[in-house]
Design goal:
six-stranded parallel beta sheet; 27% strand; Rossmann fold; alpha/beta; Quinone Oxidoreductase, Chain A, domain 1; 317 residues; 2 domains; seven-stranded mixed beta sheet; globular
Length: 317
């Protein structure tokens, strides 16, 4: 089968299209013929080993995992003898968690992994872009216990996590303000934001407005500055936070009435099924900026690395 392989950290050009062995499903696994995947910011960081701490988990001098990709949509081609949850020919979508490997034509997945039947009302590429931003946003929104009528500010509202967070926060009844650049104001409004702040014209930390929850999806704001815009018992979500931000958040949580949420998330089928149901009733829509074929994944990585994508970048396999 064809797969995108990288054997060293570096620029997008380290991603090479190769012929590799097609996997065989174990007794409790399905073999998925991947139709689409996506390029996300986390994969760009792994490709570059940025921050350096990535190397302690994924290989000090070279990557231990040679095929990236964590989201997928495709068709079940075969199943292990103990599989009961899925049938050959069914369309499924989901997230591999930390096993990666979806920059390829085939992938084996445990039947009880983070996957569900694909919504019939969207395409494979639309389904593939949902699980990364969707599960991240859902995890933190549930953890923050966002409720009806709460004021929520979403920073990076036009990105993969931000575009999902707007729609999910609205679903849970929040009054949502999105922060984005001039060119993305119309998109953020179309996703349901009640208000939009164009950060090129206005600094939300200086306008005197406070919020119950601030959800920073892109790690672009100073934590200390953003605290001024939080209510006394508010919640700060740092979904893109690294070690430094996590430690800072832990200190704030221990020494103030502010709750800071960060860290890695656990994926599960329950969340994928929840997102599927929202898609089916029109409460969650995928946002795709660009689509590339698998062969042009280096170009896709270069585009994502610029940090200006609207929603998601899809890859058709």
């Amino acid at each position: 089968m064809k797969a995108i392989v990288y054997t060293q950290y570096g620029s997008p050009q380290v991603l090479q299209l190769k012929e590799v062995a097609k996997p065989t499903p174990k007794d409790n696994e399905i073999l998925l013929r991947i139709k689409a995947t996506a390029v996300n910011s986390g994969e760009v960081r792994l490709r570059k080993a940025d921050p350096f701490a990535v190397r302690f988990l994924f290989g000090l001098t070279k990557p231990k995992i040679n095929t990236l990709g964590v989201v997928f949509s495709g068709e079940v081609e075969s199943t292990g003898k103990n599989v009961t949850l899925f049938k050959i020919g069914e369309q499924v979508f989901g997230h591999t968690d930390m096993s990666f490997g979806t920059y390829a034509e085939y992938k084996c997945l445990p039947q009880n992994g983070s996957l569900a039947l694909k919504p019939a009302n969207i395409s494979h590429k639309e389904a593939a872009v949902i699980p990364f931003g969707g599960t991240t946003a859902l995890h933190f929104i549930k953890k923050a216990n966002i409720k009806q009528g709460q004021k929520v500010l979403i920073v990076g509202a036009s990105g993969a996590v931000g575009s999902a967070a707007i729609q999910l926060a609205k679903f849970f009844g929040a009054i949502v303000t999105g922060v984005c650049s001039t060119g993305n104001v119309a998109l953020v409004k179309s996703l349901g934001a009640d208000e939009v702040i164009d950060y090129t014209n206005e600094d939300f930390t200086k306008n005197g407005v406070t919020y119950d929850v601030i959800f920073d999806t892109v790690k672009t704001i100073s934590i200390s500055r953003s605290l001024k815009s939080l209510n006394k018992k508010g919640t700060l979500i740092l979904s893109a936070g690294m070690g430094k931000e996590m430690l800072q958040g832990l200190w704030i949580s221990k020494t103030t009435n502010i709750k800071v949420l960060s860290g890695l998330i656990k994926h599960n089928a329950e969340d994928i099924i929840f997102l599927k149901k929202l898609i089916e009733v029109g409460k969650l829509k995928p946002v795709i900026d660009r689509t590339y074929p698998l062969e042009q994944i280096a170009e896709a990585h270069a585009y994502v690395e610029k940090g200006h994508k609207k929603g998601n970048v899809a890859i058709e396999v």
